[in-house]
Give the backbone structure.
Amino acid sequence: MLGYVRAYKPEMRFKEYDVYKGVYCTLCKTLLRRYSPIGQLFLSYDAAFLALVLLALQPDCPAQTSSRCCYNPAKKCLSCGRGDVQDFCADISVILFYYKILDDLHDRGFSRKLLAALLYPIALLMHCKAARMQPQADRIVCASIRRQNETEQTDASLDAAADPSATALAELGTLRVDDKSFYRFCYLLGRFVYVIDAVDDVRSDVRKKNFNPLKSRFIQDPDSFAAYAMQLLNLNIAELFKSMEKLELHRYNEIVQNVIFDGLYNSALYVVKKYQPGEASI
């Protein structure tokens, strides 16, 4: 998960934003508690959203308390859902970050390789703990990375290339909630993240000669790529919204709707904008 799944603040009420931020801040504190201040580098809006949905699916209302940020003690913030859900999402964040570091070590870009090499010893140490806490999750992500590499060797289509990542998120989600509707929701969310990341990176992947299932479409007609990419992402968002309506959310319905309907749409607009005619070309 890469930071594309976030709320759209202008369309949120104050009390909804406070809860959303409270889940995010609690995950940040959980990473601090379980993995030291360095663990907070692994914090992402994507993992916070997963925590939010898992808390929304729980029958019991999560505890909400007022606390202070260790980096800004003068400011009060909400702590929301401290417990096994946040612990699970913190462990998942570390596992995903570790495998991203491994992937970056094989990147063609020198700067990304260098940064990955510097972070690898720290990520490895924290991954050992996370894998011990969540062995099933680690096996799921490891198998997904292996499948992803095998798929990319075959010059796969977009659907085939997105499947390993989407399936991994679906399987990770159902470690906590064993439900077909939630599996479908997580699968579509993972697929969206893969597709928007492919759109975001397609120009650099053409330049670096990296695998990208959208590369040939971009090369053939770069002027119409923005419209094509937006259509792809909008279709995924529409499917995701339909699957969300089948979830039995006990709370946070408006926040989840905001992230799916407004947040993902605005992430798509932001990424696609650079491919509009007149923007920088390869």
About this structure: The chain has a mean pLDDT of 91.
